[in-house]
What does this fold into?
Amino acid sequence: MPTWLIIVLVVLLILAVGGAIAARRRMAAREGHFERSLAHVNRDLAAAHAEDNGWNRDTLEAAARRVYAAERGSEPTGLDLVQVIDRPGTDDDHAVFSVGHERLTLGRRDGEWVLEALK
It folds into this structure.
């Protein structure tokens, strides 16, 4: 095999390995931003779904704050609506909030939002 061919193959191999390493680093750097963006989009989607179904966001958040304070003895520091479960009727509706590292699930009973789960 000619020497020039070996040199070309080695250079191509070095470029391929270097490109793969650079792509992996770029993907790792963007991963955190992607996760934050995805969480933000999910919160916005849950809020839009709630508003679309005629749920009052202020009423939901007030109920979540009241229930959390009753269970934990203090106001929640951060409260994000992350999921809306709207089944037929009203007594089977659920709203899921993220409160720090906890999940607060409210259910609707007789028109009032009540605690389903806090974990």
Notes: Helices lie at 3-52, 57-72. The first helix runs from residue 3 to 52.
